[in-house]
Amino acid sequence: DEIWIFKVYVHWCPHCQQLMPRLYRLALVLMQHGAKRLRFGAVNCATEHELCAEQKWPGHPLLVPKYTGPDRRIHDAIEHWVEAVKDPQ
């Protein structure tokens, strides 16, 4: 089973350009919880307007993990990471 992590960004955004450390932390957490196959993708909402609107992503920068496998540990690790990096706003 694969885990996909998508970076959702716009190319001119300074915060989006600084997102990589969070991406590395997410990959580390997932690997520590048993993830074996990580895949990465990126979506530039400045050019992919329809996709970003269709997905109803709340903004950018954003990391979106996708996993449909059966391993509950991986689901739990993703949920843990999402809670840990939420903006306190």
What would you note in describing this structure?
The chain has 89 residues and is α+β, with helices and mostly antiparallel strands. The protein contains 4 helices and 3 strands; from the N terminus they run E-H-H-E-H-E-H. It has helices at 14-17, 20-32, 49-55, 72-84; strands spanning 2-9, 37-44, 62-67. It has a 3-stranded mixed beta sheet with strand order 2-1-3, covered by helices on one side. The protein is globular. The N and C termini lie far apart (34 Å). The relative contact order is 0.30. The mean pLDDT is 82.
Largest sheet: 3 strands, mixed
* Global mean pLDDT: 82
User: Distance between termini?
Assistant: 34 Å
Number of helices: 4
How is the quaternary structure best described?
Answer: single chain
Q: Which strand order does the major sheet show?
A: 2-1-3
- Tell me roughly what share of residues is in helical segments: 40-55%
The number of distinct β-strands equals 3
- Residue fraction in strands: 15-25%
Which residues sit in consecutive blocks of at least 5 with pLDDT less than 50? none
What gross morphology would you assign? Answer: globular
Rg measurement, Å: 13 Å
Record the SSE blueprint:
Layout: E1 2-9, H1 14-17, H2 20-32, E2 37-44, H3 49-55, E3 62-67, H4 72-84
Parallel strand pairs: 1-2
Antiparallel strand pairs: 1-3
Quick summary:
By secondary structure, the protein is α+β, with helices and mostly antiparallel strands.
